[in-house]
Structure formats: C-alpha cells, structure tokens
Here is the input.
Amino acid sequence: MRVSKPASILCTAALALAVITASIAVPILFRPFYYAQIDALELPRQTGWSRETIREAYDQVLDFCVLGRPFGTGALAWSEAGKSHFADVQKLFWLDFAVLGVSLATAVLLLLQRRGSFAFWRPLGRGPGFWAAVLAAALVLAVGGLAALDFNRAFVIFHALFFPGKDNWLFDPAADQIILVMPEAFFRNCALLIGGLLLAGCCGLALHDLLRCPGRKSPSLKM
Here is the structure.
C-alpha cells in the first residue's frame, strides 16, 4: 500500500489544531463553568450585585461574542472602548470556531480516505495521533510554564500578541463594570481548564495510537 508523508503531516497538524481549538472552545461555550464561579469567587459579595444581575451581564457579553447579538452588559455600565475590545474578542472566538471546524473536518476526511487507498507515514513507528499529542502537549508545557512563573506577565503577553497596538483591554471598572464580574481569577481558571482539557486530549490521542498499533514500524515511504 502507498505510504503518504504529506497526508500524515497534514493529519498530525489537523488533529493538533482540533484538540487545541476544542479545548479553548469549551469554557467559551459551556456557560455553567462561569456560573459555578459566581459563588466560588464570591462575586455577589465582592461587587454588591445579585447573582442574577451578574449572570445576565455575562450572558449578554457572551451572546455578543459568540452569537453576534447586540452588545450589552445587563444592568452594568459599559463604554465604547469596552465594546470595541469585545468586538475584537468576538473575532478571536469566531476564528477559533472556524479553525476547529476546518481542522476536525480535515482530520476526519483523511482518516476515512486512507482506508484502502494509502497508509500514513509513521516516523519512529508512531502515527499522526501520537505526534499531534506531542505537538499539543509541547504547547501546553510552554504556555503553562510561562503562566506558572508569572500569570500576570503571561496575561499581558497574551493581550499584546492577540490585540497588538491596543490598550482597550485595560478596563476602567467605573466605565466598564463587567470587568468586576470577570476578575483575573476567572481567566486563570479558564486557563487551567483549557490546559487540563488539552492534556486529556493529548493523552487520548497518544494512547489510541499506542494501543492500536503497539510498536508498529512505518513501511517504506513512497510519495
């Protein structure tokens, strides 16, 4: 059977991107994750607003960022600068969803197409799933190491990379009260969740490859 190196590389990249973007999408789409933190972070006591007011504000911001609905923060005050930042966030969210869809579709199509037509190139006897896990895990370790050393610094670097030349992410709590119900601890917990999901996905990919083809060596490469 013909062995395809390009298909293997493409599938590896697609699987790695799918795991990364899916992990990022979970705290965005699974709103109960935030709801559970309203009490855990004692936001009603910290802000003086009710749980319902806080939840409404968060839901309206996420409806804007995810669904493209009109911007609002419920009963909380907001500014045009704050709205502009969330418009930038919306673009990043939609980009994540798009990459997730394309990468997942690419990986599935390659996995289905290979049956009977070609075999994946397996460097060191390991397939695309294993190497995708290695790539994604390397990202987790690199980013996680930076965040563990100094989360505040990592937070600043993140915004400098993804919002270049902008400072509208530096909210004035008096003008954009939403920042009071989305404190740094919330974003740190999001990062921990994403990291945990990424590691779980990496373990799943690696184990599937190891159990499915233990010690199997790659056949001779034919392009």
